[in-house]
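Here is one chain, start to finish.
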Amino acid sequence: MKAFYQPLLAKGGSANYFRSNFMKKRILYICLITVLGLNLLIGAQIYRANAAEKENVYQQVELFMRVLERVRQDYVDGEKVTYEDLMRAAMKGMLSTLDPHSEFMEPSKYTELKNDTEGAFGGVGIVVGMRDNMLTVISPMEDSPAYRAGILTGDKIVKIEGKSTEKTSLPEAVKKLRGEPGSDVSISTLRPGTKEVKDYKLTRSTIKVDTVKDINGNREFPIGENKTGYVRITQFGEHTTGEFKEALEKLRKQGMEGLILDLRNNPGGLLDQAVKVCDIFLARPQLIVSTEGRSPRMKTEKYTATGRDEYPNVKIVVLVNNGSASAAEIVSGCLQDVGRAFLIGEQTFGKGSVQSIMPLENGAALRLTTAKYYTPSHKVIHEKGITPDAIVPMSPEEEEALYYKRVAGGIDSLEEPLRERIKAVHDVQLERAQDFLKGVILYKERAEKRGRIETQVASQKN
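Its structure:
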């Protein structure tokens, strides 16, 4: 201790000096700690108060109403807006900030959504597209008003209801052509080959949209080489499972041993239909998909197979690409996860969230993301997508050719030499699927043949 105090004693101080200095520093440290503690306490209270203020729904609604009223009263073109306009715009803006799939749907859009999922709508039965900046008939649907009137693939629609379509967008044109069954719509067409303009008055009827098609875009479902069937699901609507089962039964009667399920550019649709499609190829109680959300009602929900695998000996390849989304990803992800199918193509879109549709007043509806999908192995689909077992990319030219080949009359609507160029393009993903199944089926047949021979040899020895 003497050695420790020596520097202080040399300066003329004493032990009391050291003790008093030490106590002063101790008091200073205590004060600093106290001040810091108070600051933290006060800061936490302020933070909680601010957070509580932000979560105070009454204060926020009051603020919103003040802004709404100010806009309604002082906006320079206020006579052009109503309270209803402003409220609907506010709801659209609010939901658009959440994610790309949540939205406020006007009555017309909600009706379109219901028509798409129900697989029927009122119209004249024309598949249209833009070609050379002109509204062009891609294909008239069989047994539709347009088909019976004699409208052909390649005809240019120059007028709808007497008004030029020159500056009409494709969605606007489709909206004008659709309508209540029994109502009339007049159109004028220009036939490029003859340069003849024809006027038509068409009576809209209920147009049924098939969601399950064969390789030729029809519903005949011929068996291919090596007893391989092909089925394309365009989207998952209310009647998809029934249509799919009909297609499979036709292929079964032709001796199907392999199946190519084409889900490319399938945007999704109804969850229950995706589950039922998977159920055909799975046995009880195999998990198909689960959803997990925030609210107690959507917290966790599991969907499992209910019966038996109806086609246990059929080998399956599923084709997917960047346009395969939502319900298409549920089907492909499930069948891949449980080892029931081999996936070929490109990474899927990654739209694995659940949108609940909540009807509102005046025919409008709220579409809100309430949960996310998970595959049987609990892989999240949303923003991740499904990775195929075999990556087979397609060029933009090949994608364009695939589009025209799929649309009835699509190739015929093209002019030379584009038509021949499109015909010459191969569907490399489909060819890879055919080759894969060919190898699997041949191996299976040889294994069965070898087994029969071994059985015969063994019986002869006995």
